[in-house]
Amino acid sequence: MTIQAAEIPQTTKSRSMALPSARRLLLWTGLAVLLAWVLVPIYFVALGAFGGRLGVFRWPKTIWPADLSLAAMTQFLSIEGVFNALVNSLIAAGLTVLFSVLLGAPAGYALARYSFRGQNAYRLLVLLTRAFPLAILALPLTVSFIRLGLYDTPFGVSLIHTVLALPFAALVTQSLFMGIPREYEEAAWVFGCTRFQAFMKVVLPLALPGLAATAIFAFVISWNEVFAASILTVRERTLTAYLLRILAESPLHYRFAGGFILIIPSMLFIFAVRRYLFAVWGIASK
Amino acid sequence: MPARTSWIPYALIAPSVVFLGALFLVPLVQTIWLSFSAGDGFSLENYQRMAGDLNFSLAVRNTFLLTLVVVPLQVVLALAMATMVTKLDKGRDLVLWVLTIPLGISDLAAGLAWLALLQNTGYLNSALYALGLIQGPVGWLSQETPWALFFAIVLAELWRATAIVLVILIAGLQLIPKEFSEAAEIFGAKPWTRFMRITLPLLKPSLQSALILRTVLAFEVFAVVYALGGRNFPVLAGEAYVWQNDNQNYGVAAAYAVLIMAISLAATAVYLRVLRTRPEQLP
């Protein structure tokens, strides 16, 4: 209590620098616990992935890495179906990126630059998707996908993943384009550009980093999705669907290897878009 | 000033409208229709089969229990994280990156990461053994230890999905003008009072969207549960998956889907009503 009273005059000057050392210590201890809480499970699944069969059943375990090898991982990758599943996951995620940006960005541009009748209805449609567990909608699609020849293809999976990513892409690109002054475009029109040329030459280069962030989010959404991918595939499974299917019968170290492969791209991607994370979610959660 | 209405905006939104119509609205109607049709015409047969199933009441109970425990804990944890992070000046970006890593991690991978910790010869048991609390490997994730399994799933869900709440809350915190808190400080408000009377009320819109997002996702929880406990812990989305893929009974699976959607919509409606913000209350 006394410490707090003494510190008040300081805090009014500069809040963050004035934390006394005792509270600073407490803050950093708390943060260290939280950082460990996030990182430790990833570390352990990595040990499991590279420890192989022996590592998994070693008892009692030490928390330090012991006889890790790439053999366990390469073994896992050479199991029949794993590599194919990895490729399918990449195809589905790539197509999801393509569709959600190609469909979402024009809609975002329309919302940012024009006021038109039906604008609110469209916003409502986009927001409505948020109140529904979307992956569940894969259930009735099975029948129509079989009829259309889309069942059991990465393309079919990417369609339902695009439903997940598209509303997000539309909302994020809307605010992205709103942040680019329309005067830039108008200046380009004055100099004789068509609307399309103005967009391509002036707006697009400015919007590119934000669009890249949107694309990466779409990729992560698809890469991680389990339920719809498992419902819509049998032989051409994505990695998540494949892992879910083999959960019951595969040995632990294969499961950990699969989990590790799923985690790695996510970590890199979150790192790549970390600057946009808060802007993007601040917008998308309005 | 937005440009005057022309055909251009309609052409720009048309592809996404068609797409969402075909792959969101149509399957939505299809699911409802499918759940009410068995044999010929309208019937409640699918719902009767669903409700009569051995796992049904368990799945309902488990799903609700998980949601009711996980979602409030996530909000509290995310608030604590957010308050800590905003106090930082050095290393803020690095801390935020680490704390948001789980945002990009699949629920399946999260379940597997916690499996590495909690499996019979895993790290938790090794630690307990080193402390002399257990004699040898103990199973926590089987049918005989339902509460340990439940606890494990709660941990994995907290680990994986708190990040999304954190990001939404931090984005919301950035919108609150610093002057409010500073003014209260001058009038002698303690940190706790400032948090309860200023930050929390102004954070309501962000809390609302975080809660809607998380609750809808919590009701379709599936892969985390499967990775840790297989079918030892039935949940609604898991039962829908089993009826669809293993039993090949699309009608009952659709009935489960409709149930999940109804619960999600009801939860969203409750949040929209309870946490509504009047425009004049915004800063």
UniProtKB/TrEMBL annotation, chain B:
GO terms for cellular component: plasma membrane. The chain crosses the membrane at residues 12-36, 56-82, 94-117, 147-171, 211-229, 249-272. InterPro entries: ABC_transporter_permease, MetI-like, MetI-like_sf. It is a multi-pass membrane protein. Keywords: Cell membrane, Membrane, Transmembrane, Transmembrane helix, Transport. It is found in: Cell membrane. It comes from the Bacteria. Residues 60-271 form the ABC transmembrane type-1 domain. GO terms for biological process: transmembrane transport. Belongs to the binding-protein-dependent transport system permease family. This is Sugar ABC transporter permease. It comes from Microvirga aerilata.
